[in-house]
Amino acid sequence: MDMAALPYRPGVGIMLLNAANQVFVAKRIDTVSEAWQMPQGGIDETEPPLQAALRELEEETGIPSEHVSVLAESRDWVTYDLPEHLIPKLWKGQFRGQKQKWFALRLHAPDNVINIHTEHPEFNEWKWIDMPRLPDMIVPFKRELYQQLVEEFKHLVMR
Fold first, then answer.
1. Full-prediction pTM beyond 0.90?
2. What digits encode the pLDDT tens for the residues 76-132?
3. What gap in Å lies between CA 118 and CA 18, rounded to an integer?
4. Which of 101-133 are b and which e, b meaning 16 or more Cβ less than 10 Å from the residue's Cβ?
5. What span, in angstroms and rounded, lies between the C-alpha atoms of 146 and 136?
6. What is the spatial distance between Cα 71 and Cα 8, in angstroms, rounded to a whole number?
7. Is the distance from CB of 100 to CB of 77 less than 8 angstroms?
8. Angle 23-116-92 (CA atoms, 0-180°, nearest 5)?
9. Mean of pLDDT over the chain
10. Which of 21, 31, 48, 127 could pair with 35 in a Cys bridge, judged by C-beta atoms 3.0 to 4.6 Å apart?
11. CB-CB contact of 79 with 95 (8 Å)
12. If DSSP codes are grouped into helix, strand and coil, which group holds residue 6?
């Protein structure tokens, strides 16, 4: 399979911050490893990226958009490549990875608005962590992307 010939799937990601400037991470339901990640997902055709991010946030965490505000948007679209063995298993083998626009959002509600037991749950556990810990918690093939995000959004948590 020629990975380089495959396109990237358009997607969005959300770095959700609480009042203590910690980042929301959740553990994927479909892996045996300790794979934690921030909410993310695909963009529907003609859907603006911010709208997709707010939709994905609610679908994955139960948090409606009225409980968040937008702090920042990534300057550029960022990409990651899937390991070759995963390509046939995800998205019907049509994509080599994802091209994502990321949004930093602030949660303006208590933790009890978070509900990962959604209609189509993707996570079985969640927690708040300090931003510098993010790259160490993600699967290795997304580590560089998470390091870029920490670098780009770290000004949001500096005191």
1. yes
2. 999 999 888 888 887 888 889 999 999 999 999 999 999 999 888 999 999 999 999
3. 21
4. bbbbbbbeeeeeebebeeeeebbeebebeebee
5. 9
6. 26
7. yes
8. 95
9. 92
10. 31
11. no
12. coil
DSSP string, 24-83: EEEEETT-SS--EE--EEEPPTT--HHHHHHHHHHHHH---GGGEEEEEE-SS-EEEEPP
Q: Is 126 helix (H, G, I), strand (E, B) or coil?
A: strand
Best CA proximity match to 78, nearest among 38, 113, 51: 38
> Which tokens sit at 19?
């009042």
Nearest partner of 21 among 138, 136, 135, 106, judged by Cα: 106
The radius of gyration of the chain from alpha carbons, rounded to an integer in Å, stands at 15
Backbone φ, ψ for residue 143 (5° rounding): -60, -45
Q: How many domains does the chain have?
A: 1
Helix, strand, coil % in the chain, rounded to nearest 5: 35, 30, 35
Closest CA relative to residue 146, chosen from 64, 38, 19: 38
Q: What is the CATH number of the domain that holds 97?
A: 3.90.79.10
CA distance 133 to 28: 17
